[in-house]
TrEMBL record:
It is a multi-pass membrane protein. The keyword ATP-binding does not apply. One of its GO terms (biological process) is macroautophagy. This is EOG090X06IP. The lineage of its organism: Eukaryota, Metazoa, Ecdysozoa, Arthropoda, Crustacea. GO terms for cellular component: endoplasmic reticulum; membrane. Residues 40-64 are annotated as: Disordered. InterPro entries: CysZ/EI24 (IPR059112). The keyword Transcription does not apply. It is found in: Membrane. The gene is EOG090X06IP. It comes from Daphnia dolichocephala. Belongs to the EI24 family.
Length: 325
């Protein structure tokens, strides 16, 4: 019973930490600007060059992206353009074309013919719309989101922790990012497989647990990467402190599971994810509820171990063979 209370406490603490970004993101830009102005004043007093420092401040202000501005751009692209275009096509354009088709055939008393024509016209229109609009816009949004998410994470990290402490070599950074992408893709497949298990209720809960941990990894990975954490350390940290990270990823997992369409779910994720990046950057899971985290460090949940073993096997049989050849 005591362990259940500890799980609930850690999970609720993670939920509260995950929601902080929705409030902090509106004040971070002002605090970052205040922090920069204080640094400029300190430099002016020490160097006594107000003109040079002011010109540098203008240049810095132009180069540094604003967190709220990047968040609004993500919302506009993913929610305002991508998601609304899907709703407009399925909710307005297709019904309008169907109504016009039915109306034109009704004069001739050929309603059956109208239904037959619409049965093959609708899939053709949907396939054309998906090919010419949805797919290019989806790829564009994913490409642009990578840069915008990184800008938000870097700006938030510099404000709270200063200069990033990255991995020692470029090759190590590239290898870590590639391996992380493979692990995340395999873990997503594992989550889907868990949802297909023939066990009522339990399969949904197990799949939700996977998605919560995966979204927590997404949210914290920018911060941990800037702190120089390698992928094994990031995964072990989540597995050891799984109650907290389950609660942290729960709001985003619930909100993205509501839409029936996978594309709309992806839009919801892209709109909300910047807030969780800020939340992950400002959260302190290793100091808050310390006794709870130390308790569950003795009972890790090794959900990432199967995909890590599979990814190692894939890399050893592909890259390892090519190197030996």
């Amino acid at each position: 019973m005591e362990h259940i209370k500890d799980i609930i406490y850690a999970a609720s603490h993670g939920i509260l930490d995950s929601l902080r970004g929705f409030f902090l993101i509106f004040t971070l830009d002002r605090e970052i600007e205040l922090q920069r102005s204080l640094k400029r004043e300190h430099k002016n007093k020490s160097a006594r060059r107000p003109q040079t420092s002011s010109s540098n401040s203008v240049k810095e202000k132009q180069e540094e992206p604003r967190i709220l501005h990047r968040t609004l751009q993500c919302s506009l692209l993913n929610g305002g353009v991508f998601c609304l275009s899907i709703f407009a096509f399925n909710g307005i354009i297709l019904p309008l074309i169907e109504a016009l088709l039915t109306f034109s055939f009704s004069f001739r008393g050929q309603l059956n013919a109208a239904q037959w024509v619409w049965s093959w016209t609708s899939p053709v229109l949907s396939a054309t719309f998906s090919t010419l609009w949805i797919l290019p816009l989806f790829l564009l949004s994913k490409f642009v989101n990578c840069f915008w998410f990184q800008d938000i994470a870097d700006a938030a990290y510099k404000y709270s922790r200063g200069r990033p402490q990255l991995l020692p070599s470029v090759s190590k950074m590239i290898a870590d990012m590639l391996f992380s992408m493979v692990i995340q893709a395999l873990f997503l497949v594992q989550a889907m497989v868990m949802g297909l298990l023939p066990i009522a209720v339990f399969n949904g809960l197990l799949s939700m647990l996977h998605m919560c941990l995966l979204y927590s990894l997404y949210s914290f990975e920018y911060r941990w990467f800037n702190e120089g954490w390698e992928l094994p350390k990031r995964l072990t940290h989540i597995e050891n402190h799984w109650p907290y990270f389950f609660g942290f990823g729960l709001p985003l997992a619930i909100l993205t599971s509501m839409p029936s369409s996978t594309l709309v779910s992806g839009c919801v994720f892209s709109v909300l994810f910047p807030f969780f990046i800020v939340s992950g950057n400002e959260a302190q899971p290793t100091t808050k509820a310390k006794y709870v985290i130390n308790l569950f460090a003795n009972y890790p949940l090794r959900l990432f171990s199967p995909v890590v073993a599979l990814a190692n096997t894939i890399f050893n049989r592909t890259i390892g063979r090519s190197r030996s050849a």
